[in-house]
C-alpha cells in the first residue's frame, strides 16, 4: 500500500495523480491489481497536513508520497522516521536540512526537487521579451511564512528582495479575495504584466488567476504547465508532470526493496517553455519569433 499526502485538492490534482500512477505502472504496479493507494488531501490548508500524515502512518503503508513542497514532506517525516517517503518540492531539500545531500539523502526520504524559485530571473527575462523591456512588471507572491523552515524562509526572503530590485511592484496574496484585489491594485498602478510566484497556493487557484489576467488584460507568466492549459499566456519551468512520473518510479522501486537513503534526489534535466497563442491574440500581443522558435509547446 502507498500513502499519498497532497497539499492541494483532488479536483486540481488529477494530472498529478495520473502521471504518478504512470510512473508506478512502469515499475509494474497497477492500481487495483497489485497496489492500493490511500490519498489524503490538504485542500491548501498547511495546518491540516500533520494530522493527515499521522493518519496515513497509522495505516502502515510501505511508502508515503508527498506532493506540496517541503511543508508536506516535513509533515510526513515528523510522523514517521521509518516508513520511506518520496517527495516533490521546489526548494532544495539539502539546503533546508531535509536530506543529508542530494546524492546520498540518508534517512528515510528522497524524491525530486524542481528548483522553481531559482528560475524567477529567467521567467522575468522571457516575460519582458514578450511584452517589451519598458513594460512595468509586478510579482504576485504568497508571503505566508508560517509553515516554512529556516532554510526556506531565507530562500523566500532572497526571492522577495530580488523581486523588489528587479520588478516594479511586489503583491502579497494569501486568499482568493486578496488575489482579486492584487489585480486591481496592479492595474491602478500602471502595471503592464504580471509574474506569478511558483507556489502551490496559486497553482490550486489557477483558474481564478488566469480568469483575472484575462479580465484585466494583463499578460502573465507562470511556472506550472497547468496554467497554460487553463488559458494562461506563458509558462517556463521544469515539466512537473514528468517529475510526478519520476516520483511514481521511485515509489515503485522502493516497493521492490530499494533504500531511499541511497536513492539520489532527482533534479530536472530540461526546462520547458509553453506559449498560448490564443491568449496572446486576445491580449493583442505579437509573440516574437525568438520565443516561438525556442518554445517547447505552442497552443494555437
Question: How are the SSEs ordered, and which strands pair?
Answer:
Layout: E1 2-6, H1 14-26, E2 37-41, H2 49-58, E3 63-67, H3 69-79, E4 85-89, E5 109-113, H4 120-131, E6 137-141, H5 150-166, E7 169-172, H6 176-188, E8 193-196, H7 200-204, H8 206-215, E9 220-222, H9 225-229, E10 234-238, H10 240-255, E11 271-276, H11 277-282, H12 289-294, E12 297-299
Parallel strand pairs: 1-2, 1-3, 3-4, 4-5, 6-7, 6-8, 8-9, 9-10, 11-12
Antiparallel strand pairs: 10-11
The dominant shape is elongated
Give the strand order of the largest sheet, numbering strands 1, 2, ... along the chain. Answer: 7-6-8-9-10-11-12
What's the CATH topology name of the largest domain?
Rossmann fold
CATH class of the largest domain: Alpha Beta
CATH homologous superfamily designation of the largest domain = Response regulator
* Number of strand elements: 12
User: Proportion of β residues?
Assistant: 15-25%
The CATH architecture assignment of the largest domain turns out to be 3-Layer(aba) Sandwich
Distance between the termini: 42 Å
Low-pLDDT segments:
none
List the total number of helices: 12
Give the helix proportion (percent range): 40-55%
Could you describe the largest sheet, including whether it forms a barrel? 7 strands, mixed
Please state the oligomeric state of the protein chains shown: single chain
Structural class: alpha/beta
Give average pLDDT, whole number.
91
Order of H and E elements: EHEHEHEEHEHEHEHHEHEHEHHE
Q: Count structural domains.
A: 2
Q: Nearest-angstrom radius of gyration?
A: 19 Å
Amino acid at each position: 500500500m502507498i500513502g499519498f499526502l497532497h497539499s492541494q485538492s483532488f479536483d486540481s490534482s488529477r494530472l498529478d495523480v495520473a502521471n504518478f500512477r504512470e510512473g508506478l505502472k512502469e515499475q509494474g504496479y497497477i492500481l487495483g491489481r497489485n497496489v492500493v493507494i490511500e490519498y489524503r488531501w490538504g485542500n491548501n490548508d498547511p495546518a491540516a497536513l500533520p494530522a493527515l500524515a499521522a493518519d496515513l502512518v497509522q495505516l502502515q503503508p510501505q511508502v508515503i508520497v508527498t506532493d506540496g513542497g517541503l511543508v508536506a514532506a516535513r509533515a510526513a517525516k515528523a510522523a514517521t522516521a521509518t516508513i520511506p517517503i518520496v517527495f516533490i518540492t521546489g526548494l532544495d531539500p539539502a539546503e533546508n536540512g531535509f536530506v543529508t545531500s542530494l546524492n546520498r539523502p540518508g534517512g528515510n526520504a528522497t524524491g525530486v526537487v524542481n528548483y522553481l524559485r531559482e528560475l524567477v530571473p529567467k521567467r522575468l527575462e522571457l516575460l519582458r521579451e514578450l511584452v517589451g523591456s519598458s513594460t512595468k512588471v509586478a510579482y504576485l507572491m504568497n508571503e505566508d511564512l508560517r509553515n516554512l523552515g529556516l532554510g526556506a524562509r531565507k530562500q523566500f526572503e532572497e526571492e522577495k528582495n530580488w523581486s523588489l530590485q528587479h520588478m516594479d511592484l511586489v503583491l502579497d496574496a494569501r486568499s482568493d479575495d486578496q488575489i482579486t484585489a492584487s489585480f486591481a491594485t496592479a492595474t491602478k498602478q500602471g502595471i503592464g504584466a504580471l509574474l506569478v510566484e511558483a507556489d502551490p497556493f496559486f497553482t490550486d487557484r489557477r483558474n481564478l488567476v488566469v480568469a483575472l489576467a484575462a479580465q484585466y488584460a494583463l499578460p502573465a507568466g507562470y511556472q506550472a504547465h497547468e496554467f497554460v492549459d487553463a488559458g494562461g499566456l506563458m509558462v517556463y519551468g521544469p515539466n512537473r508532470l514528468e517529475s510526478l512520473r519520476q516520483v511514481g518510479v521511485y515509489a515503485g522501486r522502493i516497493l521492490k526493496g530499494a533504500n531511499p537513503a541511497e536513492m539520489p534526489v532527482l533534479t530536472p534535466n530540461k526546462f520547458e517553455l509553453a506559449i498560448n497563442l490564443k491568449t496572446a491574440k486576445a491580449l493583442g500581443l505579437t509573440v516574437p519569433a525568438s520565443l516561438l522558435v525556442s518554445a517547447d509547446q505552442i497552443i494555437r
